[in-house]
């Protein structure tokens, strides 16, 4: 079966970049990305490509080439569903904030709404592709809704989880380690799988396209994120041990990472992982394990989250203790708010929680981040509901000049590993801050020796206080 018309529900961090690359590589397929968020769609259609709603290196160029040719962004969800032979569901699946499974299970209401809308509109057979990250066996629920509320047309459900990482989304999509497609083992299922394989095969070699049953595919995505996050929590646990023993976590990380059985990736100690996926996907895995009565399995994975929370807390506590046990009324400058470099996404960013802990101690915070907007930062703090929006605006200032951000600061905390921080004139910064000049490097982006030579009291995650050379 040759697909000519594709629709994607959800124009977010996954739907937007994924469909842009799919359109770039398949100029003969019409791809329409739809969303109920009018502002987001308007931004995707903005004539100035610098105003796209998502910042990713290389994304602007891809959208520039494909938009208007075979890539379209629209709020007309029903029309796009009706026209498409293949529909990707790429809506958000956040952690539930209410009812059964609150704080753990994935909230599937947007998935269910999408499935119901497809069922209502479809008058021809459709292949429905789960692009969102979903609990294992969700395809069954989607199929139930489609088969029982549809117009008698046939649906095939595929699972095609997305492995892109924000910040490198375009590169990851152009050159993925693998593409995973799960489908039914029936003849119709095989045909649907083949239709999707053909779309990817226009630029990805077939050996890298894995096909499995639906449940393996759904579960693999959760497990991949759990394994990645586990490595971060593992090295972060060791970073604390380094600090009290005189070992240096970068040296330990290099030494163990050169073991080919372990490998160097995801062994970078930091203030803790953030992002929209790791925490929610592990919590989801924990919830699934619990719901099958597998309590030891659940506890094992939950510890990854506990360790991550601990890492964020102890970073904030360390700032307070180094500043003579009080930050009340003191100005702390944050370099970075995004959960990692090269993205404007701030979901679950460590910066939010470190800020919250310091605000509890009555600190005043000034934030500089090259890509995150002022509205986003206030929205993140307001969402916590720890204090009133007015108080957040009184205690937190956002500036777009890093040198102004540092003036009269009692301490500088680095929360995101933006490359530009390395290039700052730290000598100039030193002269404008209150002495002693404290820098807390939560991402290990700066050179400790140079910072100390400049006069800073420099502390980095995983570097021992006994170790004066780095
Ligand atoms: N962000 C990542 O790095 C990443 C990576 C891999 C997988 N995922 C998974 O992909 C999914 C989407 O993540 P995201 O980061 O793109 O989320 P997102 O919040 O950026 O985007 C989701 C979009 O879906 C839209 N939407 C929700 N319900 C809708 C409906 N009924 N009709 C039309 N539009 C609707 C929302 O308005 C929003 O714009 C999640 O399941 C996530 O776990 C995310």
From TrEMBL:
Residues 333-448 form the UDP-glucose/GDP-mannose dehydrogenase C-terminal domain. It comes from the Bacteria. One of its GO terms (biological process) is glycosaminoglycan biosynthetic process. Pfam families: UDPG_MGDP_dh, UDPG_MGDP_dh_C, UDPG_MGDP_dh_N. The keyword Ligase does not apply. One of its GO terms (molecular function) is UDP-glucose 6-dehydrogenase activity. Pathway: Nucleotide-sugar biosynthesis; UDP-alpha-D-glucuronate biosynthesis; UDP-alpha-D-glucuronate from UDP-alpha-D-glucose: step 1/1. It is an enzyme of class 1 (oxidoreductase). The keyword Oxidoreductase applies. Coiled coil: none annotated. Keywords: NAD, Oxidoreductase. Its EC number is 1.1.1.22. The active site is at residue 277. InterPro entries: 6-PGluconate_DH-like_C_sf, NAD(P)-bd_dom_sf, UDP-Glc/GDP-Man, UDP-Glc/GDP-Man_DH_C, UDP-Glc/GDP-Man_DH_C_sf, UDP-Glc/GDP-Man_DH_dimer, UDP-Glc/GDP-Man_DH_N, UDPglc_DH_euk. It catalyses: UDP-alpha-D-glucose + 2 NAD(+) + H2O = UDP-alpha-D-glucuronate + 2 NADH + 3 H(+). NAD(+) binds at residues 10-15, 35, 40, 91-95, 132-133, 166, 277-280, 347. Belongs to the UDP-glucose/GDP-mannose dehydrogenase family. NCBIfam families: NDP-sugDHase. Catalyzes the conversion of UDP-glucose into UDP-glucuronate, one of the precursors of teichuronic acid. This is UDP-glucose 6-dehydrogenase. It comes from Aequorivita vitellina. The lineage of its organism: Bacteria, Pseudomonadati, Bacteroidota, Flavobacteriia, Flavobacteriales.
């Amino acid at each position: 079966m040759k697909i000519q018309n594709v629709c994607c529900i959800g124009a977010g961090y996954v739907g937007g970049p994924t469909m842009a690359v799919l359109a770039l590589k398949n100029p003969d397929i019409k791809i329409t990305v739809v969303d109920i968020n009018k502002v987001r769609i308007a931004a995707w259609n903005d004539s100035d490509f610098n105003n796209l709603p998502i910042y990713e290196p290389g994304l602007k160029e891809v959208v520039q080439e494909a938009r208007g040719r075979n890539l379209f962004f629209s709020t007309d969800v029903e029309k796009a569903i009706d026209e498409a032979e293949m529909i990707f569901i790429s809506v958000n699946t956040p952690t539930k904030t209410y009812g059964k499974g609150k704080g753990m299970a994935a909230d599937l209401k947007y998935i269910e709404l999408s499935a119901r809308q497809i069922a209502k509109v479809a008058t021809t057979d459709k292949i429905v592709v789960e692009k969102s990250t979903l609990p294992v066996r969700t395809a069954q629920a989607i199929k139930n809704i489609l088969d029982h509320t549809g117009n008698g047309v046939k649906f095939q459900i595929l699972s095609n989880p997305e492995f892109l990482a924000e910040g490198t989304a375009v590169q990851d999509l152009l050159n993925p380690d693998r593409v995973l497609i799960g489908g039914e083992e029936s003849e119709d299922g095989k045909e649907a799988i083949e239709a999707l394989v053909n779309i990817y095969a226009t630029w990805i070699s077939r050996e890298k396209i894995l096909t499995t049953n639906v449940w393996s595919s759904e579960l693999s995505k959760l497990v991949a994120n759990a394994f990645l996050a586990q490595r971060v929590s593992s090295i972060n646990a060791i970073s604390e041990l380094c600090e009290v023993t005189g070992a240096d976590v970068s040296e330990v990380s290099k030494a163990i990472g050169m073991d080919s059985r372990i490998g160097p990736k995801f062994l970078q100690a930091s203030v803790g992982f953030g992002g929209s996926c790791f925490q929610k996907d592990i919590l989801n895995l924990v919830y699934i394990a619990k719901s099958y009565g597998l309590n030891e399995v659940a506890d094992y994975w939950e510890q990854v989250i506990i360790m991550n929370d601990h890492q964020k807390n102890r970073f904030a506590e360390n700032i307070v203790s180094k500043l003579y046990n009080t930050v009340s009324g003191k100005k702390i400058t944050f370099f970075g708010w995004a959960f990692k470099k090269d993205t404007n996404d701030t979901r679950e960013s460590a910066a939010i929680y470190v800020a919250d802990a310091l605000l509890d101690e009555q600190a005043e915070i000034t934030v500089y981040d090259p890509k995150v907007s002022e509205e986003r930062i206030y929205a993140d703090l307001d969402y916590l509901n720890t204090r009133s929006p007015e108080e957040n605006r009184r205690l937190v200032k956002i500036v777009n000049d890093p040198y102004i951000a540092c003036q009269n600061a009692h301490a500088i905390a680095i929360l995101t590993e933006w490359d530009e921080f390395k290039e700052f004139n730290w000598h100039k910064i030193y002269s404008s801050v209150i002495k002693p000049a404290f820098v807390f490097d939560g991402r290990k982006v700066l050179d400790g020796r140079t910072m100390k030579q400049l006069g800073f009291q420099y502390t980095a995650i995983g570097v021992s206080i006994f170790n004066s050379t780095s």
